[in-house]
Amino acid sequence: MIGYILLASGIAYVAWSLACLEINARKALALGIPIVRLPIDVNNIFWILLQPHIWKVLDCLPFPWASYPRVVRYLRRGWYIPAKAESHVQLGPVWALVTPVAFDVHVAEPDAILEILTRRGDFQRPIAELKLLELYGPCISTAPWEDWPRHRKPIATPFNETLMKPIWDESLRQARGMLASWVAKADAGIPSYQQDTRTLSLNVLSAIGFGAFHDFRRSDEPVTDEIGGYHDSLKTVLDNIILLMLVPFHILAKLPGRYARIGRAGIDYKKHMVKLLEDETAALGQGKPSSGAIMPSFVRAAELYHREQTANPESHAKTGKSGLSVEEILGDLFVINFAGHDTTANMSAFAVVCLAAHPEVQAWVAEEVALATKEYTNMEDWDYKIVYPQLKRCRAVVYETLRLYPPVPALPSITSNRTHTLRVDNQTFTFPAGTKFTSNLRAMQTHPDYWPDAGEWRPSRWIANPAPTDSPLTQETMTRERFQVPDKTIFFPWGEGPQVCPGKKFAEVEEVAVLACLFKVHRLKIKKRHSTESDSAVHKRFEKCINDIDLEMLVRLRDGDQVTLVCNEA
Ligand code: HEM
After folding, report:
1. Beta-carbon count within 10 A of 397 CB
2. What atom in ligand 1 is closest to the CA of residue 493?
3. What CA–CA distance (Å, rounded) separates 402 from 490?
4. Which of 292, 299, 438, 464 could disulfide-link 210, Cβ–Cβ 3.0 to 4.6 Å?
């Protein structure tokens, strides 16, 4: 009897899903765009639990992933990472992925993406889907569009040009530490360049944002961070972010072993942030200097909030507020740590391993670094204002890496509560309220219609007036080289429009400093597994590693340490 009931329920569920799929498909077809039907929503909880086992089996079969039909491939979470621009090359610049739950309009056309990202009032962030980011309080990522400027102002204010010199100096200091520790490993190889680039990015952000300075320590060196200290708790929180988003840290702290440690780190991190805010408020009140660049603007936001709340309690509670509450500040500080850390770290890991596989690009970069820094005996003295603008080839490496491996590969949005038109490829489409969109940044940045040799990692594509390759770089030919973005509407790794990433230049300056430091005198190479391993076998291993990407939260190498890097003097 129970068997029949289960069977009947199963059949009813399948029939209901197929009916919903068909209803959604008709709605999407009515828009006049191509569609792809998926019988299951990729966010269906049963599917989330089941799918890893299915892919494990499929991945073992001797068929290339590309040979599976779309309906199989697109059921995999993050399918658009390996697909690059393929779906748009085949289906056009706009098409809809239809499931029994909804349809999602995928866009990869320069002007259309620019429109979506600029008209943020019409194409808004799907804040309901981002609620998990509210680990420590309401934040910029989940603020409704009308309330978002209240968060943006204190966050964006400190990210100005005066911050760049400290970022440059600290990034160089950290990179020198990383380089020394890599050279010390000599031919044994670097235990984990992927972990090390994470450490570096965390150290720079902690120092610049929050005045917490740390010396660089390689991944295999003994941990000396005090457990429960700022650095340790932040690192533990960021390393376990998905678990912490799903299980509140107070609950985790009561569980045994590793979970308790993660939960306690969540609690400790909050205590550190509250104390930092209190200390900063006291310091600024006494006219003392701030310990980090980010806090003063939050202290001012907290004061404004408090002042208005005290002066006008009723209207403050009902109508638009000014400033930020302590909860909101904690929420925003967490977003800064989250958004600023792994994005830069993942980009750095991709850049380092690509360079290791391309000795000719290292030589090209090194030539520029040598010339731009020739006046200096010590790296400590490299002047941001003089050296950074000359490092156009280093910037080109950053941009080319972000083109192929954007940490945020797609930006979701949803139309606000009325119909909206959007021009795509000279056609005007009308979308009802609540239509979901995916601006497919990685597809745009790897689309063969816009990028010659789109799949090739070739930093020189960003340099106009390139110096002749058959003679050494001179001051004159270096000065003539120009860094240029081919077309701003086909490159969006930081988003665009009002909600563009405020940490754009932070990340750029940091990575350029790291590259300049690494390649001034040294070179990286991929360690051979044995002395007779051929260069082509090494390159194959690199290709496998660089294409083995996952999207836990952001695009990253699944296991960068599939290849070991060696760092030596040139
Ligand atoms: C390579 C490094 C980075 C990449 C690729 C990146 C990318 C992005 C993207 C795509 C967005 C979303 C834009 C949108 O929704 O339209 C974003 C937002 C944001 N990023 Fe970054 N980011 C990077 C580094 C940083 C750094 C270093 C910081 C801070 C230290 C930072 C802080 C933020 C914040 C606070 C937001 C939210 C902005 C808002 O909602 O108004 N990011 N970033």
Report:
1. 27
2. 5
3. 12
4. 292
3 state DSSP class of 505: helix
Specify the residue for token string 């002066």. Answer: 311
CA-CA distance, 381 to 38, in Å (whole number)? 58
- Taking Cα atoms as reference points, which of 39, 16, 17, 37 lies closest to residue 27? 37
CA of 417 to the centre of ligand 1 (A): 26
Q: Measured in angstroms, how far is the CA atom of residue 551 from the centroid of ligand 1?
A: 16
Q: Could you read off the pLDDT of 214-243 as tens digits, one per residue? A: 999 998 887 666 667 888 899 899 989 989
Is 550 in a helix, a strand, or coil?
strand
pTM: 0.94
CB neighbours of residue 129 within 10 Å:
13
Binding site membership of 343 for ligand 1 (Cβ less than 6 Å): yes
411 Cα nearest atom in ligand 1: 15
Separation of 35 CA from ligand 1 center, angstroms?
A: 31
Number of residues assigned to the chain: 570
Instruction: Give whole-number Cα distances, 477 to 362, 473, 484, in Å.
Output: 18, 6, 16
Interface pTM (ipTM) of the complex? 0.99
Number of Cβ within a 10 Å radius of residue 232: 18
Among 127, 324, 501, 509, say which to mutate for ligand 1: greatest number of ligand atoms within 8 Å of CB: 501
Cα–Cα distance measured from residue 376 to residue 382, given in angstroms and rounded to the nearest whole number: 7
CA–CA separation, 551 and 197 (whole Å): 18
Among protein residues, the one with the nearest Cα to ligand 1's atom 18 is 501
Q: Please check the confidence at residue 317 and state whether its pLDDT lies above 70.
A: no
* Residue 567 tokens, joined: 């760092």
Establish whether residue 407 lines the binding site of ligand 1, counting it when its CB lies within 6 angstroms of any ligand atom: yes
Interatomic CA distance for residues 93 and 109, integer angstroms = 5
Q: What residue ranges in 481-520 does DSSP mark as E strands?
A: 482-483
Looking at residue 219, what DSSP letter applies? Answer: T
Backbone angles phi, psi at 464, to 5 degrees: -95, 160
Measured CA to CA, the distance from residue 386 to residue 176 in angstroms comes to 19
The reply to whether ligand 1 has any atom less than 6 angstroms from the CB of 158 is: no
Evaluate whether 485 touches 491 at the Cβ level (below 8 Å).
yes
501 is in an annotated binding site: yes
SS3 (DSSP) at 337: helix
Q: Residue 312 contacts by C-beta under 8 Å, 6 or more apart in sequence?
A: none
- Which residues are registered as beta bridge partners of 219? none
CB–CB of 206/214 below 8 Å?
yes
Give the per-residue pLDDT at 298. Answer: 93
Q: Is the CB of residue 229 less than 8 Å from the CB of residue 265? A: no
340 CB near ligand 1 (under 6 Å): yes
pLDDT digits (tens, 9 = 90+) for 244-295: 998 999 999 999 889 999 999 999 999 999 999 999 999 888 888 777 788 8
* Nearest-5° Cα angle at 554, 551 to 555: 60
